[in-house]
Design a protein that fits this description.
Blueprint (H helix, E strand, L loop, with lengths): L3 E8 L1 H11 L15 E4 L8 H9 L13 E8 L1 H4 L12 H19 L3 E7 L6 E6 L11 H4 L2 H15 L19 H8 L10 H53 L7 H7 L3 E2 L6 E4 L2 E6 L2 E4 L6 E4 L1 H9 L3 H20 L5 H10 L15 H11 L4 H9 L3 E3 L5 E6 L5 E7 L9 E3 L11 E4 L9 E5 L2 H14 L8 E5 L8 H4 L4 E5 L4 H13 L3 E3 L7 H24 L1
Parallel strand pairs: 16-17, 16-18, 18-19
Antiparallel strand pairs: 1-3, 2-4, 3-5, 4-5, 6-7, 7-8, 8-9, 9-10, 11-12, 12-13, 13-14, 15-17
């Protein structure tokens, strides 16, 4: 169970600098990972303006004088339970799933804008600590633009409304609100112990009756102190017993989880990924590819594509639907991708004997590459060389070796091979029209077993000394072209340029043997996150970020500069 969390901290003017020093990382933060970058999504990331100046500028002129102890800003902290950001490993501090963060960030930003508008002068997403969280600075101006924090956060009722509002804004993510109206109270016993530990000093001004009353108060206090001490000892023993019971129950729970593993259905998200579908960045429950628009809700799915408009339940139904195959073929596919235990979990409603018999009788599914259409190659060649800036000699060499070709729809088809060279899949990129964004995996592609890659440098029989990992085939070719220019006229060690779209599809057994690995993903928050995940799996890797958003844009920028320099030289010669 994951909870939405929202807290506030009222800041006087003297507190603004200290708060900014922490949230903007202007001072050392021991529990922060320096390799991760935080994101300021409201306010200028590169501005030299201090938080103090931003707040004062927003407050402007006030009708009445501001009190010395006035609240100038309210720091709003937004986050969620670790179980939301990393459902499979909530205790792994610092790790989180990028799509979960993006969905939560979108909802939180929308909530801030709808409730506080331009009175939020700065907001930052922190990714460098144990769990993602947001620090937002709100200047509490009321409808008359007067500084009045009590108008927003004074009293239990308004704080409850604050909590309810944020919970409602994030409940579509599966986040729940904490328990309302907790009766827990804090009792300050400082004065009580002061009475207990204070002796009665002779005082001639006290009457006998007053001294007797004071002595009686002290005796009652001593008695109450002894009762509290006995209660504390009893509670400590009870707490120890309960802790032991919790540990016993946790052990039993883990045993039950292990026994139940084979009875749990396969996650449809994992099946969709293996089928070659891609998650929609804006709608995390939706997966697209092969003409399908599939919404996944637990163990149920529904295809919203106009040509389909139907749904089902469970992994087997999803495979049958996307691959357009029968039950036996679906079982065989699941066995090939997830092993016998995975096939058994998917077939939880079927008999074990039926599944085993099916697996034994059905041949392993074989990948069939999309048919090539040589009459469409000129269009694809032009797209790769003219629009994407890939060198002609590189494109031609890949075409002649069968690693890149055109299909009947003028899609660029990139052959995906196992490390041993067997073609087991293909990635396709649309090339028709300026706004063509089609891309995806050919049906039957085994994404975790094959990759698009090319080898350059060294001798034909040389061992791979270096591997560069990129996000996509286009980026892979772009990095190879950029490095080719860098090594112009110089020998280059045998290098493999490989497209890997996710850390979960890395050929780890092969890569762990390579001493030099470059991780060249996109220059954005998700590229940094994926690169960090690869770095954890392959400590010898070095992260390389492009100056542009991705490597193809960097290649095009370099070509543009070269063309400009060439024109300038040409004009100089004419003069």
């Amino acid at each position: 169970m994951a909870y939405a969390i929202a807290r506030i901290k009222k800041l006087k003017r003297s507190s603004l600098g200290g708060s900014e020093a922490h949230t903007a990382r202007q001072r050392e933060t021991p529990n922060a990972d320096r390799n991760k970058h935080n994101i300021r999504f409201i306010g200028n990331q590169n501005s030299d303006e201090t938080l103090d100046s931003l707040v004062i500028q927003k407050i402007g002129e006030q009708k009445r004088k501001i009190r010395p102890d006035a609240v100038y800003a309210v720091e709003i902290l937004l986050t969620a339970s670790p179980e939301y950001f990393r459902p499979d490993c909530p205790s792994q501090a610092g790790y989180y799933e990028a799509d979960k963060v993006q969905a939560w960030l979108t909802a939180s930003k929308k909530w801030l804008e709808e409730n506080y508008g331009d009175r939020i002068v700065r907001a930052e997403l922190h990714l460098d600590e144990a769990t993602p969280h947001i620090h937002a600075y709100f200047v509490p101006l009321d409808e008359q633009r007067q500084l009045r924090a009590k108008h927003f956060f004074d009293g239990r009722q308004k704080m409850r409304q604050f909590q309810d509002s944020y919970s409602a804004a994030t409940e579509h993510l599966g986040l729940e609100r904490g328990i309302k109206g907790s009766k827990a109270q804090h009792q300050d016993i400082k004065d009580f112990y002061s009475i207990v530990n204070t002796g009665i000093e002779p005082n001639s001004r006290l009457t006998l009756s007053q001294m007797q009353a004071k002595a009686a108060d002290r005796e009652r206090a001593q008695t109450r102190k002894q009762e509290l001490e006995r209660t504390a000892k009893a509670l400590a023993l009870e707490n120890e017993r309960l802790q032991q019971r919790i540990e016993e129950l946790e052990t039993e729970r883990n045993q039950w989880l292990q026994q139940a593993a084979l009875l749990r259905e396969l996650a449809l998200e994992d099946v969709a990924w293996q089928l070659g579908l891609d998650r929609d960045d804006n709608q995390p429950n939706k997966w697209k590819g092969h003409g399908h628009i599939i919404n996944i809700d637990g163990t149920k799915f529904y295809d919203f594509a106009p040509s389909s408009q139907k749904g089902g339940g469970g992994a087997i139904d999803l495979v049958m639907h996307v691959n357009d195959c029968d039950f036996k073929t679906a079982i065989s596919w699941l066995h090939d991708c997830f092993g016998e235990s995975g096939a058994m979990r998917a077939a939880i409603a079927r008999t074990k004997e039926e599944v085993i018999k099916t697996v034994q009788q059905q041949p392993t599914p074989q990948f069939t590459p999309p048919p090539a259409d040589s009459s469409k190659w000129l269009a694809v060649h032009s797209y790769l060389t003219q629009k994407r800036g890939i060198p002609n000699n590189l494109v031609t060499a890949l075409f002649e070796s069968g690693l890149v070709y055109a299909d009947e729809r003028k899609n660029a088809v990139f052959a995906m091979r196992s490390v041993g060279g067997e073609v087991m899949g293909a990635f396709m990129r649309g090339t028709v029209r300026e706004d063509n964004t089609f891309m995806g995996y050919a049906k039957g592609t085994k994404r975790s077993d094959c990759w698009f890659y090319l080898r350059l440098g060294g001798q034909a029989d040389s061992e791979i000394e270096r591997v560069i990992l990129c996000k996509s085939p286009i980026d892979t070719l772009s990095v190879a072209a950029l490095e080719d220019e860098t090594h112009s006229g110089e020998p280059r060690v045998k290098t493999m340029y490989m497209a890997v779209d996710s850390p979960q599809s890395l050929p780890l057994e092969f890569l762990r043997k390579i001493k030099r690995i470059g991780v060249a993903f996109n220059n954005d928050v998700f590229g940094e996150e994926a690169a960090g995940a690869v770095k954890k799996l392959l400590p010898q890797a070095t992260i390389i970020m492009p100056d542009q958003r991705d490597w193809n844009l960097q290649l095009l920028a370099r070509l543009s500069r070269e063309q400009l320099e060439l024109r300038q030289r040409s004009l100089g010669l004419r003069r």
